[in-house]
């Protein structure tokens, strides 16, 4: 469990490094390395969680959007 916690902390640090590298490129020049290391840590965390029985949540589909013309008609009824 300690490995999981340290991997999670490392992932957060690498995520912060990548974020900062977009804003302060000269101070944080290793964006690609940090990004690849972050991906590796994320994969290790997912592998660990899957061994414990965790499953990735399925993506939920959003309901279809109502066309703006339909919303406009409904709004006009109240005016």
From TrEMBL:
Q: Which InterPro entries match?
A: SUV3_C (IPR022192)
The ATP-dependent RNA helicase SUV3 C-terminal domain is annotated at 11-51
Kindly state which keywords UniProt assigns to this record, in alphabetical order. Answer: ATP-binding, Helicase, Hydrolase, Nucleotide-binding
Gene Ontology molecular function: helicase activity
Q: Which Pfam families match?
A: SUV3_C (PF12513)
Q: What is this protein called?
A: DExH-box ATP-dependent RNA helicase DExH16 mitochondrial
Give the species this sequence originates from. Answer: Prunus yedoensis var. nudiflora
């Amino acid at each position: 469990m300690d490995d999981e916690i340290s991997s999670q902390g490392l992932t957060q640090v690498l995520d912060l490094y990548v974020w900062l590298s977009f804003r302060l490129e000269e101070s944080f020049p290793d964006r690609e390395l940090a990004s690849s290391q972050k991906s590796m840590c994320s994969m290790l965390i997912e592998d660990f969680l899957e061994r414990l029985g965790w499953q990735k949540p399925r993506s939920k589909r959003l309901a279809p959007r109502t066309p703006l013309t339909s919303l406009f008609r409904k709004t006009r009824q109240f005016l």
